[in-house]
Each structure stands twice: as structure tokens, then as C-alpha cells.
Write a structure and sequence with these properties.
Blueprint (H helix, E strand, L loop, with lengths): L5 E4 L5 H12 L4 E6 L11 H4 L9 E2 L2 H6 L3 E4 L3 H13 L3 E4 L6 H10 L4 E4 L5 H16 L5 E8 L9 H14 L3 H4 E3 L13 E7 L5 E8 L4 E8 L3 H14 L5 E3 L1 H5 L2
Parallel strand pairs: 1-2, 1-4, 2-3, 4-5, 5-6, 6-12, 7-9, 8-9
Antiparallel strand pairs: 7-10, 10-11
The protein binds NADPH dihydro-nicotinamide-adenine-dinucleotide phosphate and the ligand O=C(O)C1=N[C@H](C(=O)O)C[C@H](O)C1.
């Protein structure tokens, strides 16, 4: 039997970074071969296990991304857009699978990531959970069945530290609703209503973002009709959910050709 796939985790000290490290260490299908942090971070040079407050695990935190990627079969990356674009280039150079959970990416970031995917598989999704990806499918199905007599609103809630809105998941749900309706999301999106907004426009898709406390992630798609409403809802209660999905994506992508993939591909939905 060959060696287990080697995994590098970026943003090691972050909320998702630490969750990903624990998930890989607990897995019998992969091994942790590297952890990355920014230059100057006080974890650089330390064993990642002790930096996280536990026992030594034999992996030293580094700021040398290319050297770490060259030793890996996959990179799990939940950081920030600027970092992720740079990591996509370096993972492609190292021919390592790049699993991207980072949200808030601009269209130009996504274009650069697309170029990197010519050289190695990239799996990117605003949400790595089975439940949310199923919710995306259901949203498209319901939006296809109902016409614009039903107003679509997407409401999401996250912890107080989240920096982007609407969430990546809310945008996936909005894209699915628009696809089901056969319209372009950019032309029908209503984001951040405030002041004298005028009445709601028929056919528009509304987004609302709530931020507070330690909410892991909650998403609801509501179809408001006359005298009735349909609500589709997902609540994440543990970040480990996303980390398990990311590891599953990394293992799945080992057998794929270079290109762009998402969790629908990984989960076969
Ligand atoms: N797709 C999914 O299923 C999920 C996606 N996410 C997304 O993952 C991302 C991270 O979330 P979370 O872990 O909560 O955030 P955190 O802020 O806790 O962690 C982000 C980490 O990335 C590091 N980082 C940021 N910018 C850079 C950079 N330029 N170079 C190197 N490292 C950098 C941060 O370091 P520093 O502290 O030094 O800035 C930090 O360690 C977000 O975009 C979030 O939306 C989250 C959960 C699930
Ligand atoms: O920042 C988070 O925490 C999360 N981000 C993702 C998003 O933007 O949808 C996924 C999840 O909801 C948690």
C-alpha cells in the first residue's frame, strides 16, 4: 500500500485552520505534512500541536508556501481572497490539489484561480457540507417550480468575526434560485435594503445578513407567496462539518484531471 496523501493547511491559526488540522490529524486516510502562516506570525517555527495548546505532532509551522506545497498532494485553504489567489498559483506550480473554502472572492480572483486550474485540480465551494449542497439543489428545484408570484428572500446568520457578506453560501443559494428561474442573479439581486427603497420588485432575489455571537452558520431560503410561504433551512452547529467536507474533497480530487470542481462534483449531487 502506498503512502497516505500528504496535506498542507494554510491559515493554520484561524478558526477553520485549526479545525482542518485536527480533522487531518484524526483521519486514517491522510497525513498532515505542513502548516502555513503569514511571515512574522508568532506560530512560525513552532510545532503546530503545541501552538494549538496540545501535544507535539511533529509538524512545524512555516511561511514558505511553495516549499510546503512541493511536499504535499493537497492544500486545504480557508483564508482570505488575496492569500487564496497567491496559494492557487503556488499549488498549481507544485501540481498539488487546491481545496478552496475562502469566500468573498471577487470575479477577478475567480478568473485567476481558473487559470491555475489548468495545471492541477481545484475544488472550490462556499460551503463544504452535504446539507448545504443538498439545500442548493432543492432551492433550484423549488425556484424552477414556482414563478415570480413567489418572492425569494435569502437570510443568513454568522458569528461576529465574519468579514464578508452575503456569505458564500447565500450567494450559492441565490445563484441556484436564479438558475431555477432562468434569470441572471446580478440583474435581480437586492442587497442591503436601507431607507426609502421603494416597493419590492417582482422577480428580485433579496439577501439579508445577520452577524452576532458565535453562530457557526445558518441559511434560509424563503419563497413568499400569497397566503402561503415555503422555507428551506440549514443550520450548521459545528465547524468540523466543513473541515470533513474539505478533506473529502482533497481525497476525491487525487484521481481527477486538472480543472475546476465544486462540492456537487465531490458529493455526486
Ligand atoms: N467553504 C466553507 O465551507 C467555509 C468557508 N469559510 C471561509 O473560510 C475563510 C476563513 O474563515 P475563518 O477560519 O473563520 O477565518 P479566520 O480569520 O479565523 O482565519 C483566517 C486565517 O487566514 C489567515 N490569512 C488571512 N489573510 C492571509 C494572507 N494574506 N496570508 C496568509 N494568511 C492569511 C489568517 O491569518 P491572520 O490572522 O494573520 O490574518 C487566519 O489564520 C472565510 O473566507 C470563511 O468565509 C469558513 C467556514 C466554512
Ligand atoms: O465564515 C464562516 O464562518 C462561514 N463561511 C462560509 C460562507 O461564507 O458561507 C460557510 C459557512 O457558513 C461558515
Amino acid at each position: 500500500m502506498g503512502e497516505l496523501p500528504g496535506i498542507v493547511v494554510t491559515g493554520a491559526s484561524g478558526r477553520m485552520g485549526q479545525m482542518l488540522i485536527r480533522t487531518v490529524l484524526e483521519s486514517d486516510k491522510a497525513r498532515l505534512v505542513g502548516c502555513l502562516e503569514r511571515p512574522g506570525h508568532d506560530w512560525i517555527g513552532r510545532d503546530v500541536g503545541t501552538a494549538m495548546g496540545g501535544a507535539e505532532v511533529g509538524v512545524t509551522v512555516t511561511d514558505d508556501a511553495l516549499e510546503a506545497f512541493a511536499r504535499a498532494q493537497a492544500v486545504l485553504d480557508f483564508t482570505a481572497p488575496a492569500a487564496t489567489v497567491e496559494f492557487a498559483k503556488l499549488a498549481a506550480q507544485a501540481r498539488a490539489v487546491h481545496v478552496i473554502g475562502t469566500t468573498g472572492l471577487a470575479p477577478e480572483d475567480i478568473e485567476k484561480i481558473g487559470k491555475a486550474a489548468h495545471h492541477a485540480p481545484i475544488v472550490r465551494a462556499g460551503n463544504m457540507s452535504l446539507g448545504v449542497n443538498l439545500l442548493v439543489r432543492l432551492t433550484r428545484q423549488v425556484a424552477t417550480a414556482l414563478d415570480a408570484d413567489f418572492d425569494i428572500e435569502i437570510v443568513e446568520a454568522h458569528h461576529r468575526h465574519k468579514v464578508d457578506a452575503p456569505s458564500g453560501t447565500a450567494l450559492m443559494l441565490g445563484a441556484a434560485a436564479a438558475e431555477g428561474r432562468g434569470v441572471d442573479l446580478d440583474t435581480v439581486s437586492d442587497r442591503g435594503r436601507d431607507g426609502i427603497t421603494g416597493a419590492r420588485e417582482r422577480g428580485h432575489i433579496g439577501f439579508s445578513a445577520v452577524r452576532g455571537g458565535d453562530v457557526v452558520g445558518e441559511h434560509e431560503v424563503i419563497f413568499y407567496g400569497a397566503g402561503e410561504r415555503i422555507a428551506l433551512r440549514h443550520m450548521a452547529t459545528d465547524r468540523a462539518l466543513f473541515a470533513r467536507g474539505a478533506l473529502k474533497a482533497a481525497l476525491w480530487a487525487q484521481d481527477q484531471a486538472p480543472g475546476e470542481y465544486d462540492m456537487m462534483d465531490v458529493l455526486g449531487l
